[in-house]
Amino acid sequence: MWTAVADSAVAVGAALPTWHTGRPRRHAADGRELRGVIQFAARLRATPRTPGRKTDLTNLRYVRPPDIYDPALLLLYPTSMRDLDTTRPRPAGQLAPAAAPSPGRSTLVEPPLPTGEHTARAATTPAPAPTPAAVPAAPTGDTLTVYSDDHHAAHAAPFEHAVKHRDNHYAPHSAQNRGGVHSDKTSATTAGGRPGVVVDHNSFFRLKDATAVRYTYSATGDTNVAQPFDLIKRADLAHYNYNDKGALSAKEKAAVAGKSQRLLLNPALPRELSINGKRHMCVLSWVDGKGAAWLPLSDLAGNTSAIHKEVTARAKRENPTSAAGPATRYVVRNDAVGQATAGDAPKGKEHVLGPHQKGGDNVSHYLEKDQRKPVIGDDGTATGKNAWVSFAALCMNLPEPAVAPVAVDTLRAGESFFVMNATKFHQQIAVYQNNSAKSHERMTWVFGNVGKLGARGAIERDPHRCGWVPLRILAQASQEHEKDVTKKA
What we know:
The protein is α+β, with helices and mostly antiparallel strands. It contains five helices and 18 strands. The strands form five sheets. Strands 2, 9, 13, 14, 15, 16 and 17 form a seven-stranded antiparallel sheet that branches. Strands 5, 6, 7 and 8 form a four-stranded antiparallel sheet that branches. α1 runs antiparallel to α2.
């Protein structure tokens, strides 16, 4: 009988989130109340009793616990008083019963994501301390999950529209679109026409070892869990500007012969990523044709302290500031709307984001891409297999004269992105026909934050990851569709 009473107390604790108001209560008090009831039940079970005599319950009154929220309790609380009895022997190898979800706690109902974000989405209790194992390995083969919504026209509202009068239009500067972003001058040792980090008069960086793995990441609580993105090789990288052969010596020309990849660093604030259970300080690298991804500082040759210092200084001047206010959740899409179409390059000439431009700031550079990339094993080496990776750039700035948007992070298809609702965070960006002086088209870009998995299992805004993207690469979460397709290389 006493065990049944104690079990009932635990059941009451599980119902605590709803018994006062009849609807879920989403705050730390739920955990405190539940812990108090469980502690009360434990004392109840441990109270000595003698058959035929009344048991003294004077000291068993329920006392509300102190103002401490213990998320581990919500994950580990037992479903039976038998589980509270630590003196009862348990068969060898048998684990404690899994935690039952609290019936009163509601959960976001959202589509699964391909990164650490989806690991505990369906859980009604907070996740344990995140580890890299919580991030699923990249898929292999030709299977690709496609994310979309009910919009199917890439070149119509709300993504694009025409204006009556041709002009040059630029978005205003703000804390979210800082001025001062500039492109480096062209020289033998700097990549001209591109904003990048320059250390000791050189913007071309080298690898310490023969290969290095680059990463994207998904924030889980306060941990940035890395996921392999691709693998780059030292032998493929040019150490001089092959686009300015007139400034190169004969020896330098020979060194860049046959090479078409440059390893550059974007002025994005360095991030600490958890890679195979170890924390590594990483910088955002950019490689021709491969996009931007995070690279451990320890994989770079040269003075890594000076590199870290210069990247940080540039980032503090140029990176956007996260904004407060209401936002709407979207999902990064990788369907035909989010990718480049024939309309982005009429007659084979790419649309660009600046007047008189012929390339370098192509609209297609800022749309979603599917690329075949090597699958990386736990030991950090390529497995010999390839998989599709769908990604898009998150930009720190909007285009302005002689400056293209610069990636501050990389997003994976399926990741959540919270778009700020205020109109100032929805900017109309001029799109130019190739080498045109004026624009009569506008493309909507929006500002917001990447989603993260919060401590209590809900998807929330990450204040450390914000920037601009074309609205075209986002699907409304309320209309989101997904399907697995087979895509041949």
